[in-house]
Amino acid sequence: MSELAYEEAxxxxxxxxxIGVVSELTGLTERQIRYYEERNLIFPERSPRGSRKYxxxxxxxxxxxxxxxxxxxxxxxxxxxxxxQNGKEDQRELRKRMLRGQLNAQFGIxxx
Length: 112
Description:
Shape: globular
Strand content: 5-15%
Largest sheet: 3 strands, antiparallel
Low-confidence stretches: 1-7
């Protein structure tokens, strides 16, 4: 394996924050946060018990989403902008991440 495979994620990318704490940090309701996940705008991981876990990067993304929604931008438009901005990660990769999170939740597997 390459050295990159052993490299740890930045603290900003580690998924360790519960939805309740994210709600407190962002001012969003837990329902709003789950809705943004349903719209494929955010991709939390799941704990072995199925609880959503977010990173600091996710919190920043949620704040950006909330600001755009407040400005009248629709979730579909935000999603399209995210796809355009993220040239490295195409729709297939985003779909894989989403499916991986769903499978992990279904089978109680925790990503490392």
